[in-house]
Design brief:
The complex is a heterodimer of chains A (299) and B (319). Chain A is an all-alpha fold. Chain A is built from 15 helices and two strands. Chain A has a single domain, classed as MetI-like (MetI-like fold, Orthogonal Bundle). Chain B folds into two domains: 85 residues; 189 residues, Orthogonal Bundle (MetI-like fold).
């Protein structure tokens, strides 16, 4: 005992060393169980897995199966066959694609110059004006659609007589703010000195636009197109209301099939939309659109 | 001498001429700029006015006693505003819409912010997977999101809850969270990338626990991203129709009846006839509220920008 005490007294380093080791062990244990920053992603990842991945997987299953009389699911091409042999459904797809593309083009043709002028300090310094353009986004879109229809039929353009015209007007009205916002965000970031340099080096305004403004604003254009094209095909309320049920878009027949509990057909058509989404993602994968999409310029 | 004079005059005269020309050119340029600006402003305002016609017509007719717009205006009256607040159906739908928007946005905010922070510090491969999955609901058609969720809920109801329908406020809430969650993530991510990575380490070195470092060092840096994500969530939730129509069930303020939000209620009404008169009053109120928020925010930003300028000016004076 006494020798031990003596030892401790003589060699304090020893004690400190032991304590240090003990402390180190504790820290190690704590680290082993303790929270790491990356664990914070777990709930998020789980949520995405449960409500994004698994539902899409179920859609895939339903698209290539059929329910037998005893209630079992068996592999089947019937949904695929029923889609590709139905001229009605193919027609709806073609019409939806056409209306989607047309709406995207019209929105870009109107929205692009507006965004360009709004973002250019030479023409506009008023930020309230920009907000006015995106403000309709905060008024319920179904309400706006109803209002558009009422006003159009007041002007004589009712869905009964001009279903396509009325629908196109309604679609452009609804998606214009969504086009202007990403375009405006991109235009704010245009490299002004490059434009000036181009002009100083003798490019006429047309060439400045084609060779400098347009290439720089591609991310905004792509972002805007993505915000318009798919929703146009999918949001059936607008076409339903404005054409008084005369125009059926792709979202509409998915909904109809689904509500008549023809899940397999409905799932197959949802799969077609997913493929379209995949194609558009693939085509635009190299363009960084994240920033333009969040509407960062607004808040 | 003569030749010298000649030289002088010959050099002076052209400069004066050039000066004149330059002045003229500037004048011309200025006039051109003014013309261009007027033209641009005209274009902007024409598009804006055309865009607002339907909303303005609704607002104009919100003070009228007539049931259909476009017909005789009738008397100027505030009766529709009184009717609006006495209409139980609309008030319930409005309440539902606001509650769902707030609750789903708060959930998205917490999950999305935590997700963005966690993913940012994860391994590259994990990060890439999560980021790609995040893109899916952003680019996906709303009808596919709605339908796939509904199929999932029916599936779960059939196999886990013994054939009972699980459609309720909760399924609706999940639908709205899925709609807005990726946008919170995408708003927070760039702020994390812009942040000084040494900040967190410095906080730890100065004696913060990990939680304190996150709350006191990281969170303030990414706050603007969180705020814009939250506002975006609310916008998306307020405006949603398809996901709501698919995933809703009974409950909330609607009691035993199916939940109605503003979107679904208006859709049901305009399917049968014109926009209900009380809705015109509601549109006016929403419009005024949004306008007030927009103007308030712009003023706030201007004031902040000015303060920054003043501060900058002072600090440069100090130097």
């Amino acid at each position: 005992m006494s020798s031990n005490k003596k030892l401790d007294a003589v060699n304090p380093d020893h004690v400190i060393g032991a304590k240090a080791i003990e402390h180190h062990e504790k820290v190690k244990a704590k680290h082993f169980f303790s929270f790491k920053r990356k664990y914070m992603a777990i709930p998020y990842a789980l949520f995405l897995l449960l409500f994004v991945i698994i539902p899409i997987f179920i859609i895939l299953v339903y698209a290539f199966t059929e329910t037998t009389d005893d209630g079992n699911l068996i592999f089947s091409w019937s949904a695929l066959v029923s889609f590709f042999t139905s001229t009605d459904k193919i027609n709806v797809l073609v019409v939806s694609l056409f209306i989607g593309v047309l709406n995207t083009i019209i929105c870009l043709l109107i929205g692009y110059p507006v965004a360009y002028l709004l973002a250019n300090k030479k023409y506009n310094t008023n930020t309230v004006l920009v907000m006015l353009f995106v403000m309709p986004m905060w008024i319920n879109f179904v309400l706006r659609t109803g209002a558009t229809r009422d006003v159009l039929s007041w002007l004589g353009i009712n869905g009964g007589n001009y279903p396509y015209l009325a629908t196109m007007i309604g679609l452009v009205y609804n998606y214009l703010p969504f086009t202007i916002l990403p375009l405006y965000t991109t235009m704010l970031k245009l490299d002004r000195s490059q434009l000036e340099a181009a002009a100083d080096l003798g490019a006429n305004p047309f060439h400045v636009f084609i060779d400098s403004v347009l290439p720089q604003s591609v991310p905004g254009i792509v972002s805007a197109a993505e915000m318009v094209f798919m929703p146009t095909m999918s949001t059936y309320v607008i076409s339903d209301t404005l054409s008084e049920g005369k125009i059926t878009l792709f979202g509409n027949i998915i909904y109809l099939n689904f509500s008549q509990s023809q899940w397999n057909e409905g799932s197959f058509m949802a799969l077609i939309m997913l493929i379209l989404v995949g194609i558009s993602m693939f085509l635009t994968r190299n363009i960084d659109k994240d920033e333009t999409r969040q509407g960062g310029a607004l808040w | 001498m003569v030749s010298e004079d000649n030289v002088i005059t010959s050099t002076v005269v052209p400069t004066a001429e050039a000066d004149e020309k330059l002045k003229h050119f500037h004048k011309h340029e200025k006039a051109k700029n003014v013309l261009e600006k007027t033209f641009a402003q005209c274009f902007i305002w024409i598009i804006l006015i055309v865009m607002y016609i339907p909303i303005m017509v609704l607002i104009a007719y919100s003070f009228s006693s007539t049931t259909n717009i476009g017909t005789d205006y009738g008397d100027f009256t505030f009766a529709l505003y009184r009717d609006l607040f006495q209409n139980k159906e609309i008030m319930t739908a409005l309440g539902n819409t606001i509650i769902i928007a707030l609750v789903s946005s708060v959930i998205s905010l917490i999950l999305g912010t935590a997700g963005a922070i966690g993913t940012y510090y994860s391994k590259r491969r994990v990060r890439e997977v999560i980021e790609n999955v995040t893109q899916i609901p952003v680019v996906n058609a709303e009808i596919v999101i709605a339908m796939s969720l509904t199929v999932l809920f029916v599936f779960v109801g059939n196999y886990i809850f013994a054939g009972n329908s699980i459609f309720s406020f909760w399924t609706l809430l999940i639908g709205h969270v899925i709609l807005s969650l990726p946008f919170v993530y995408l708003s927070v991510k760039p702020k994390l990338q812009q942040m000084d990575p040494a900040l967190y380490e410095a906080a730890l070195d100065l004696g913060c626990t990990q939680r304190q470092a996150l709350v006191k060092a990281v969170l303030p840096e990414i706050m603007p991203g969180i705020a814009s994500g939250f506002l975006l969530s609310i916008t998306l939730s307020l405006d949603d129709f398809i996901v709501t129509a698919f995933t809703r069930g009974a409950g909330l303020l609607s009691g035993d009846k199916t939940i109605e939000t503003l979107s679904t209620l208006v859709q049901a009404k305009i399917k049968k006839g014109p926009v209900p008169p009380e809705m015109r009053a509601l549109t006016t109120l929403i419009f005024l509220l949004v306008l007030a928020i927009v103007i308030g925010m712009t003023i706030y930003q201007n004031v902040k920008a000015k303060q920054k300028k003043v501060r900058k000016g002072r600090s440069s004076e100090d130097k």
